[in-house]
């Protein structure tokens, strides 16, 4: 990134009283511009805690939308409003009503990777870092988890006391990782630990040495005494992994996983959105208020 662009962004940020939040999956040069980088839970918490009037959310739409739901007084800008997570739209709103009618004692749990409409119909929202601890605390025996089936099955495996109803949502980036890829990577790097995101398929998770969110993967590798790791998540995490662990080696499973939506954000788009103060996340107030409950419940149950 040209030095001048970096300086222009810094001065625009001051002028607009803005903070830049970036997910670990965006391009390195965008992460380098950010005030806070993190997983989806951490970024949601930072959106609530920062004092700046404007948030530039370098991530996908559900992330900016969630920041706006909780912070209606702030201006939330998305450098690219078309950067959307396909999984977020995979929940079936009618099916939620059907499941509620079928089971009296059900809690509808939505993954953060969901639309505002899905959040509005859910009891609590979770991310990959807090799903297990939040669902464990819920008083309900029946859990309808939308939309990601792999994360739901991973959590269900740890909570035999609960009855899970699954939905067939998935992330195309994580499900492109196969058990065969991982086994080949292990054979090429004997002794390397496999670190996987819970959106990966069950047979990949079965051979993982650690399963966790993007922050979880980075923390695990940083605290570990081991020196070699095979990373089963989107390639953007390599930037932070290598920054924090210059002495360690990180390997892909043969091909890099790229989330096209996350990678559509560029420093040029960050600059343009600060100049123009758009695209801005705008939500209908009644939808925002309905979706707020599930997000507030998540933050209350995580603290
Ligand atoms: P994290 O919550 O681990 O950051 O994951 C977000 C995501 O989109 C995973 O694909
Ligand atoms: Fe969505 Fe998958 Fe991209 Fe995450 S990596 S934002 S789940 S498409």
Question: What do these coordinates show?
Answer:
- The protein has 303 residues and is of the alpha/beta class.
- The chain has helices at 3-16, 28-31, 40-49, 61-70, 93-102, 116-120, 131-137, 149-158, 172-175, 179-188, 202-206, 214-223, 237-244, 267-276, 285-302, and strands at residues 18-23, 36-38, 54-58, 75-77, 106-111, 124-126, 142-146, 163-165, 193-196, 210-211, 228-232, 249-251.
- It has 3 domains: 3-83 and 262-284, Rossmann fold (3-Layer(aba) Sandwich), CATH 3.40.50; 87-170 and 288-302, NadA-like (Rossmann fold), CATH 3.40.50.10800; 177-256, Rossmann fold.
- The strands form 3 sheets. A 4-stranded parallel sheet has the order 2-1-3-4, sandwiched between helices. Strands 6-5-7-8 form a 4-stranded parallel sheet, sandwiched between helices. Strands 10-9-11-12 form a 4-stranded parallel sheet, sandwiched between helices.
- Helix 8 (149-158) links the parallel strand 7 and strand 8.
- Helix 1 packs parallel to helix 14.
- It is globular.
- The model has no long low-confidence stretch (mean pLDDT 97).
- Iron/sulfur cluster (SF4) binds at residues 25, 60, 85-87, 113, 171, 173, 199, 234, 259, 261-262.
